[in-house]
Design a protein that fits this description.
- This protein has 322 residues and is mainly α.
- The protein is 80% helix and 0% strand.
- Helix 5 runs parallel beside helix 7 and helix 7 runs antiparallel to helix 8.
Length: 322
């Protein structure tokens, strides 16, 4: 990075000096949640007047590096967190969608598509909130690959691949929801497997961009130090410290914030500023109520666990006295 600095120092220090910090945050989010780094980059960079199509191209090249590092780090940490049986069919479906969207059906301005994706993701997060409030169990660590399973995974992978070609991310989030909602796979396993899938799709998308479009090298170079630190060192450490339940809440938080930012900043929908603010304030109030409900449920579970422990402790004391 330092050797290449003379080629980029002018644009780096004048315009892109903030990218290492953004890259570190995005790499941590990308490698501990089923949300790719693009969920951080897209609203920030478009708000800073970077063209949406450039951000989409940048998302793929930086994720190929950052989530590739994260995949390697998770594989070293615990390879049992990967569902290897679903990756081939997911990659095939993703490639079909990605090639179709990047070569045959490209779009020049993906803002509206991003807003639609954010809205769909926000709807899906409500399933996560319901599962947390109801303490839904996810017992499966593997998937029985039947014909129906193959077709389901292939169909959603093609949709995810289309999104990757258009906005630079999306298949990982869709994959996570399919694994947890349809197949009841353990969230930690679904997250890590989705990270590896997004890494592969980002690498293939970067190659396609090199061949048919552009790759914003300056943005990639500027984010590289932060992504390296976040992907190799911070992500796994934070994930282990936080626990899967809190990571799930972090994931829903970022999806919600991304949707709010997209709704606030993008002007693709014919909507007055007053109506836009009313909708956002209502959604924020709703999210606040949901998190209060989750907090109360957690407090009840903690109190119940403490009471059960104290009860067992008294029984043990009485047994010793007897």
């Amino acid at each position: 990075w330092l050797i290449a600095l003379p080629f980029f120092y002018e644009v780096f220090f004048s315009k892109l000096f903030y990218m290492p910090f953004v890259g570190a945050v995005a790499a941590v989010v990308a490698n501990i949640t089923p949300a790719a780094a693009g969920i951080i980059y897209f609203p920030i960079l478009t708000h800073l007047s970077v063209a949406p199509i450039t951000v989409s191209q940048f998302n793929l090249v930086i994720q190929a590096y950052g989530m590739g590092l994260g995949t390697f780090r998770w594989f070293i940490f615990n390879r049992k967190l990967f569902i290897f049986s679903v990756l081939p069919i997911s990659i095939i479906g993703g490639l079909i969608g990605e090639i179709s969207s990047m070569i045959f059906f490209p779009i020049s301005n993906p803002e509206l598509l991003t807003l639609i994706f954010n809205f769909i993701s926000f709807i899906f997060t409500q399933f996560i909130f319901i599962s947390i409030i109801r303490n839904t169990q996810y017992p499966n660590r593997h998937i029985e690959m039947t014909t129906l399973s193959y077709l389901t995974i292939l169909f959603f992978s093609i949709i995810g691949g289309l999104l990757c070609g258009w906005i630079g991310f999306g298949i990982d989030t869709i994959f996570y929801f399919v694994m947890t909602i349809i197949f009841k796979v353990n969230p930690a396993i679904a997250i890590v497997t989705s990270i590896s899938l997004m890494a592969v799709m980002s690498f293939s998308g970067t190659i396609l961009n090199f061949l048919f479009h552009d790759v914003p090298i300056e943005l990639f170079y500027s984010a590289l130090p932060g992504v390296t630190v976040g992907g190799l060192f911070l992500a796994a450490y934070i994930a282990v410290k936080m626990g899967s339940r809190n990571i799930l809440l972090l994931f829903t938080f970022f999806l919600s914030i991304d949707f709010f930012l997209a709704l606030w900043t993008q002007q693709t929908l014919p909507m007055s500023e007053t109506v836009r603010k009313i909708i956002i304030y209502a959604l924020v109030f709703y999210m606040l109520l949901v998190h209060i409900k989750i907090f109360r449920n957690q407090s009840k579970n903690i109190n119940a666990s403490t009471g059960e422990f104290e009860h067992k402790d008294k029984d043990e004391q009485n047994h010793i006295k007897a």
